[in-house]
Here is the input.
Amino acid sequence: MASRTYQNFDLLVEATPTGYHARVVNSPTGESPSIDFTLPFDATVLENLLLKLDPGRSGTRRVAQDPQVQAGRDFGGPLFDAVFAGDVALAWGRGQDAAGTAGNGVRLRLRLTDAPALAGLPWELLYDRRANAFIAQSERTPLVRYLDVPQVIRPLSVDGALRLLVVISSPTDLPELDGDAEFARVTSALADRIASGQVVVDRLPTATISALGQWLRSHDVHVLHFVGHGDFDTRQQDGVLYFCDSYGRSSAITSSVLGPFVHDHDPLRLVLLNACRSAHVDNTDPYSGMAQGLVQQDAAAVVAMQFPISDQAAVAFTGDFYGAMADGLPVDQAVTSARKTLNADFGAEWATPILFLRASDGEVFEGIAAPAAPVVVEPVPEPLVPVAPEPATPASPVPEPEPAVGPDPLRGGPPPVGPVEPVQPVQPVVPVGPDHHEGTPSPLIRWLGAAAVGAVALGLVLWLVLRPHNGTPDAHGSSTTTSTTTSTGTGTVTPPPPPPPSHTRASVPGPTVQALQFATPPTIDGTGTEWTGHPAYASNNVIAGGPTSVHATWQLGWDATNYYVFVTVVDANITQTHADEPSQVFNGDAVSFEIGVAEATARTDVLPSGDLHVLMGPTPDGQVVRAINVANGGASLERGEPFTQGHVAALITPDGYTIEAAIPWSRLKVTAAEAGLVLATNLNVSDAVPSGTARGNLAVMESNNPARKTNAASLRYRWGRLQLVGA
Here is the structure.
């Protein structure tokens, strides 16, 4: 979606002795009508509606038939009819027509400062029943809370990547947050933007207010993203965020404390608060909330939550919102785009995020870098010593650049999305990545490298000319013997050619997961009742497709006979179309894991014959489609066959499904399972397209290992580790 230009439609709401007065103070047509109105609900009806809209925090995903969805219409429809009536309604319609003729949208700016009792209502739910549409769901009509402040905010010229600082606060005396998982969700949602260089994400090492101050003194921050607990302090009449103190306990920070840090950090323009009640205000002071107080302290825009938001909905909103911002969209258009994403999968939560804006328009940043082409750096080879080897000594291994191997839909990796480009010849350059030095070498080092290469080349030429057993290198780097022979006392002997070099890489393993030993085997029924105390591992790194609201949590166990897994998946649409072709079940709703021998080095041309990819996918009636894809002497895990050994059970839950399995070690080619054994593994989850012509095909795949991109052998050395832990 291209960036839009907006004209403002400012609606000022004021309290009167008998109700309220709404006045248009700015519109695309220059009209300024007004209307007197009263709330279309009595106190009891309003309280019941607000209770339905704010039922308390939940970690589960809601469906479109949720009572909250209907409550949104029941609240937003009458409120729209009360305010947008008579001449105000005419001005609103004419304003949209005039702006549309000019190719622009209309930004509805609500000014509620003079009606504090209404400032805490969810105005984002304004619903035009005649158009069957919520105003705030359309990018043509973004809705923002506009706060009048004396200073003028100008867009910040970023001239590079958008820099986010994530603060994850989990005090020891409040309900625990999984900080690592929260940060992984943020970075996973922005993985493509980070890889392209559009976004840089940092995490504050310690969630204290003093650590924040130190960071802001030494780093530029454009966006402050807070994840943690929030509340409204009725005694102080102020919103609070719970940072940590020096002992890890909660420290209630008000906007009057946090605000000066925001005010004095010049690059900071946007604050996003993923905290409960961070947009709550007292009904007598429109600036009493945390978000409103930060706007007073010069934040150009603040996104806060007016209701509790589920973890998965927050992830979906974050990914789309920051992606739209990185694409250069104005902040109000970006929020609206993200609301549409929420509405698709979290119908009850799309109106939870509120945008408070003090800039004259939504352009709070300008000049964010577009995706750049990957930087290519010429490698500086290490000097080689031209020593003539013994005849039977193999040549030294020569590392090769990782080949650009695309996933194969018949193999254990996700199918390619879109057209596949033909494979180009490998050029003598190495892309910047985890296994190569980043940056450009200094002129001195480049000169020394060139000199070393020249010396090596000269030495190799002399060696080839003078060595006793002359040969011609073939296409694989080995030698083809010529008619030159060596005479001995017993006759003429032709030396054998040296073997080809082995193509290996030093292991750089991904995350380590642990399986705890079971003294008594668990009951395989999908309930997971025996898994208390086993650590949980999240598959939340998007490695294909996306964006997604589907995630999996794995728990692992073992005994001498079986490997046990219990997987909890959030996925409201169970879609299974691979029952007749189990080897392809990873292409839709499924969980899967790779498993094999942990190696210090791994070949870059073939997978070990013992490598397996175990696939298990649920059906809507709770059955399991399962298969094991196998290494077949090549660079990927090929089509395997269904497996019937062991026991696997699925259970359909309100927000997804679980899979519990006992798989014999013998089927996994492990001959002796014992405490301390380390294997190679990755833990994955896939989601299918739920409808349309592509129904059942892969929509997204996630892994606990961010390096798990394909089963190509070139990435075998990056597989994670599985450690068996004794009882």
